[in-house]
Amino acid sequence: MKPWIELGTAHIPNNGGTLKLRQRDQEFSITLSGVRGELMSSRAFNSEQQLALQGCAHLNKRKSARVVVGGMGMGYTLAAALEVLPSCAEVIVADLIPEVVEWNRGALGDCAGRPLDDSRCVVHIGDVGDLLVKPECSYDAVLLDVDNGPEGLTHSDNSWLYSIDGTSCIYSSLTPGGILAVWSAGPDNMYVNRLRKAGFQVEVATVRERPGKGARHTIFLAKKSAR
Ligand SMILES: C[S@@+](CC[C@H](N)C(=O)[O-])C[C@H]1O[C@@H](n2cnc3c(N)ncnc32)[C@H](O)[C@@H]1O
């Protein structure tokens, strides 16, 4: 078997550790120091795509739509969102780590079909939370995959996103009928309670890491009332 080749490293702010991008043949892997196994792999990305397909399903017949994707990772969620969104959509993709965006403009970009080349994409380098405290009713969908789940992993400051304050802010940032979709490694009843408390109607979907097989992941689908 060919050895891994290291393509780049990046430091997560506030001592969040080091991300490492590696390639072996056509396979890419991103690891985080201190975390066993891979953070992301180009071998399995069905649940990342499902996050977008389920979170944007209500928008596929719209003439336009405004969607936030946080974070970029290997670009699978972003690419799947672009696939189902109309030609006049705007998709703002946020990532804390500039190198992750650079990697997607380089060799890593081929994994998900170079979604950053799509003219509907706007890149925000920084915290996705910055976009969610913007004026009310700004987005038709917010797709979050920035952690292992609502308990946080890559960036401790992310806990705000899943708090009652953060959840209420995201509720306000959505248009009526808008959806917040959140990727998680597993279920979290406390988070579901917080989402309901903020006003969302919540469904919890289980999705596999590969179509029909592999680990089971969770997608929280939280809908703002249409009125
Ligand atoms: C698991 S990956 C996302 C995978 C992505 N869904 C895909 O399809 O490849 C998580 C990404 O979120 C970014 N991230 C973590 N916290 C963030 C935050 N608060 N704001 C923006 N990006 C963040 C990380 O740098 C990393 O690129």
Automatic annotation (TrEMBL):
A Gene Ontology biological process annotation? polyamine biosynthetic process
InterPro entries per the UniProt record, alphabetical: SAM-dependent_MTases_sf
Q: Which UniProt keywords apply?
A: Polyamine biosynthesis
Leader sequence range is: none
The entry's protein name is Spermine/spermidine synthase
Q: Which residues form a coiled coil?
A: none
One Pfam family linked to the record: Spermine_synth
Gene3D superfamilies recorded: Vaccinia Virus protein VP39
What is the superkingdom listed in this entry's lineage?
Bacteria
